[in-house]
Amino acid sequence: MNIEIQNLTERKIDDDFVKKIIHTTIRFEGRDKDAKIYISVVLVGRARMRVMNRSYRGKNRATDVLSFSGGKNFIMPQKLGEYLGEIIACPQIIEKKALDTGVSFEREFAHTLIHSTLHLLGYEHESREEDARMMHAKEEEIMKRF
Q1: Per residue in 116-135, is it b (16+ CB within 10 Å) or e — as a string?
Q2: CA end-to-end span of the chain, whole Å?
Q3: Please, is 33 exposed, middle or buried when counting C-beta atoms within 10 Å of its C-beta (0-12, 13-18, 19+)?
């Protein structure tokens, strides 16, 4: 499994932490046997995230994370292997969410990475309440491992 991380922000992020969260999520879903999986993670600032969220979701505000599965590859170059997709996260928004909910940045960041990795694996939560409950239950089960 190959996870490439590009940090376009000034905030220091532990690459090993990011990889551990994604590996654990992939392993939880039984996909860790797929040795050629490739995921890119890009950390961006609030302004870039706002532009991307407006362009791809029609929402003119920054968000914590966007997940683009399959053939889309916006910032990182695609490598050989099964390209699951790209996670684009905004540490500034994640920090705000952490403060608003009273949890640490690390906990909120881990939850964000788990959530977005599940999206890359095909999970959805916006169209059906049952799917949202199932995805949330998986997120909570994976979070217990940390």
Answers
A1: bbbbbbebebeeeeeeeeeb
A2: 20
A3: exposed
The CATH number for 48's domain is: 3.40.390.30
CA triple 54-101-29, angle to 5 deg: 70
CA-CA distance, 52 to 60, in Å (whole number)? Answer: 9
Strands 65-69 and 82-89: antiparallel
The domain in which residue 29 lies consists of: 2-143
What is the tens place of the pLDDT at every residue in 40-50?
999 999 999 99
Query: How many domains is the chain partitioned into structurally?
Result: 1
| Residue 26 CA, distance from chain mean position | 12
Model confidence pLDDT, tens digit, residues 62-85: 999 999 887 555 554 555 566 788
pTM: 0.86
